[in-house]
């Protein structure tokens, strides 16, 4: 009996263990492959899907990581939780996503809502308390355990224009919760209605000489040189090339119903004699891969002409997982003088596509390997340095996409600078990671040492910008995010503070706010703090409009109640005393003290 009981228990335990293992396997599978169920996520606004900017949009230094949803150029539209879940992160910044919310969902994805005007209900309450408790407007709170739960369709906030936004819209993202990979919402079925095909404006042919790609031909597609059917465009004339090793590039965009805006396309594929040699598809990417946009496009051409050519071949240093390709990574090498067919198919996320077909013929290869100076070379996979007595420039491995034969020039110190000027290469070549840079300044008084910073010239070499840095052991050390001309400068000027009325014609409209315009001439606005009658108050800071705003809250209302009591006791009304301090990034301080008018 007893033995049988033991055996039964063992079987039950064994079953239990097997059951646990099976569950673990299922969980592990879900973690690695969260389900991409269509219609799991609702559109977070009341309208039908309507995008200002689609996923993966080509931007300066990044691919757009979400979709921008149209709010009809208005702020204040209710924003809804896209599915059940809990708030996993709240981030408020004066730049970037501005006021943002992250919601984790049981399907192992996270939705993100950015540029909100304000938050709603219990979320707004929680944030206000948190800001007062920590005396900060800007914060980034990641929740270790769920505190605020939401249901599909709950109002979480209102659409706005906060942070780096350049017009009212809702920024919406779907991420894999575990890996943080950013997903194209189209794969979840979040798509606008669209039956228009994309269009290709120009075809570019690059020749490779000394391994550098140079534009050899630029062909604008028009009705004279192209036969257009609904789904295919054929170039009438065969293209004759006087080289046999080349790559392709396209200027292309998508058209969307009821929108005059041009959008980026979702995918493209290149075929050589009907064989697929290169494909690009915008499905998902990791945050730190976004800067590979500068290797995806012809960066030099973009910097010179503000036009983004999308390349149909891969730079060695480009690691973003958008591509599949043959052994030559999309580079085409013709070994005969025959006519070859090339085809590029461009598609949008709604599966509308267009094909460009053309024929090329190549002469025998001409070997024109240019003799390069080989003393000044940066290599993509190695770390690279320029070291001099008064100057250090350091690039980590994988900071550049391709071999660079760089320019380097040292110029003597000129007026209003505090060091020599060091020109490191030029503005037309991208940097993937910031370089470390150290420049020895001229001798300054001890009290000015911590006011020194690095500055660089922009593309026109006329205006220079601050790029930060600190004085340390005789050098000013900082980061360089672009190639250019660097030198040491100084910032001893405090920011300016001015009370403004948003509605200048009618200041009485500003009855719930105090607004202050804060500006800094060079290093930029850093810390800020304000006190009303000695009590810390929360200011909302919008960097793009240089605006600090106080929305009347309990601190102000407390003061009003105190004043009411004074009046009841026949005591005079006291004006509120406001102290506002703004520092720039070099610690120069401005103060605004005022018995402010109500
Ligand atoms: Zn966006």
3D structure, described in words:
- The chain has about 600 residues and is mainly β.
- It has 4 domains: about 50-190, Glucose Permease (Domain IIA) (Distorted Sandwich), CATH 2.70.70; about 200-360, Distorted Sandwich (Coagulation Factor XIII, Chain A, domain 1), CATH 2.70.50; about 375-490, Sandwich (Chondroitinase Ac, Chain A, domain 3); about 495-595, Immunoglobulin-like (Sandwich), CATH 2.60.40.
- The protein is about 10% helix and about 40% strand.
- The strands form 9 sheets. Strands 1, 4, 5, 6, 7, 8, 9, 10, 11, 12, 13 and 23 form a 12-stranded antiparallel sheet that branches. Strands 16, 17, 18, 21, 22, 25, 27 and 28 form an 8-stranded mixed sheet that branches.
- It is globular and about 100 Å long.
- Residues about 1-10 and about 20-35 have low confidence and may be disordered.
- The structure holds zinc ion (ZN).
- Zinc ion (ZN) binds next to loops.
The total of helices stands at: 5
The profile of the biggest β sheet is: 12 strands, antiparallel
Mean pLDDT: 89
Uncertain spans: 1-12, 22-33
Q: Indicate the CATH topology of the largest domain.
A: Coagulation Factor XIII, Chain A, domain 1
CATH class wording of the largest domain? Mainly Beta
The general outline is: globular
Classify the helix fraction into a percent range.
Answer: 10-25%
- Domain tally: 4
Q: Structural class per helix/strand content?
A: mainly beta
Termini gap: 89 Å
Which ligands does the model contain, each kind named once?
zinc ion
Number of strands: 48
Based on the coordinates given, report the CATH architecture of the largest domain: Distorted Sandwich
Strand content: 35-45%
Radius of gyration: 30 Å
């Amino acid at each position: 009996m007893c033995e049988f009981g033991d055996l039964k228990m063992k079987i039950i335990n064994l079953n239990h263990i097997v059951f646990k293992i099976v569950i673990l396997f299922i969980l592990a599978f879900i973690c690695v492959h969260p389900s991409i169920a269509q219609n799991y996520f609702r559109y977070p606004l009341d309208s039908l899907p309507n995008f200002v900017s689609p996923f993966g949009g080509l931007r300066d230094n990044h691919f757009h990581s979400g979709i921008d949803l149209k709010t009809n150029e208005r702020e204040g539209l209710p924003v809804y939780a896209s599915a059940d879940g809990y708030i996993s992160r709240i981030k408020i910044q004066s730049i970037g996503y501005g006021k943002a919310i992250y919601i984790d969902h049981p399907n192992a994805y996270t939705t993100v809502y950015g540029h909100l005007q304000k938050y709603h209900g219990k979320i707004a309450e929680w944030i206000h308390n948190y800001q007062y408790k920590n005396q900060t407007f800007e914060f980034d709170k990641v929740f270790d355990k769920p505190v605020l739960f939401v249901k599909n369709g709950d109002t979480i906030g209102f659409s706005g224009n906060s942070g780096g936004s350049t017009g009212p819209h809702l920024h919406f993202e779907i991420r894999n919760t575990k890996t943080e990979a950013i997903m194209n919402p189209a794969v979840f079925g979040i798509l606008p209605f669209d039956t228009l095909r994309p269009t290709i404006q120009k075809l570019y042919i690059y020749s490779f000489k000394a391994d550098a790609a140079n534009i050899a031909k630029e062909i604008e597609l028009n009705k004279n040189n192209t036969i257009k059917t609904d789904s295919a465009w054929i170039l009438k004339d065969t293209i004759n090339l006087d080289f046999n090793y080349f790559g392709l590039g396209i200027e292309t965009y998508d058209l969307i119903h009821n929108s005059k805006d041009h959008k980026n396309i979702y995918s493209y594929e290149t075929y050589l004699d009907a064989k697929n040699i290169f494909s690009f598809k915008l499905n998902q990417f990791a945050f730190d891969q976004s800067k590979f946009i500068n290797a995806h496009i012809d960066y030099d051409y973009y910097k010179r002409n503000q036009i983004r050519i999308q390349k149909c071949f891969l730079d060695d240093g480009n690691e973003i997982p958008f591509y599949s390709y043959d052994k030559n990574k999309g580079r085409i090498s013709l070994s005969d003088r025959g006519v070859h067919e090339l085809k590029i198919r461009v598609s949008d996320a709604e599966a509308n596509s267009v094909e460009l077909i053309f024929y090329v013929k190549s002469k025998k290869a001409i070997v024109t390997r240019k003799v390069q100076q080989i003393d000044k070379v940066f290599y993509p996979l190695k770390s690279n340095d320029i070291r001099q007595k008064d100057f250090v420039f350091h690039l980590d491995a994988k900071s550049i996409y391709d071999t660079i034969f760089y320019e380097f020039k040292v110029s003597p110190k000129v007026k209003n600078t505090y060091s020599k000027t060091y020109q490191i290469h030029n503005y037309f070549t991208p940097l993937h990671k910031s370089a470390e840079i150290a420049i020895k300044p001229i001798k300054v008084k001890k009290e000015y040492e911590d006011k020194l910073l690095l500055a660089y010239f922009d593309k026109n070499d006329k205006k220079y910008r601050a790029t930060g840095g600190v004085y340390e052991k005789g050098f000013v050390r900082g980061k360089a995010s672009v190639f250019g001309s660097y030198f040491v400068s100084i910032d001893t000027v405090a920011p300016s503070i001015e009370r403004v009325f948003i509605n200048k014609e009618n200041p009485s409209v500003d009855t719930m706010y105090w607004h202050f315009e804060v500006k800094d001439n060079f290093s930029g606005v850093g810390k800020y703090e304000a006190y009303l009658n000695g009590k810390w108050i929360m200011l909302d800071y919008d960097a793009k409009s240089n605006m600090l705003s106080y929305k009347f809250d309990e601190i102000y209302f407390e003061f009003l109640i105190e004043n009411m009591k004074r009046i009841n006791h026949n005591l005079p009304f006291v004006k509120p005393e406001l102290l506002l301090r703004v520092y720039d990034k070099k610690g120069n301080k401005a103060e605004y003290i005022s018995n402010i008018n109500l």
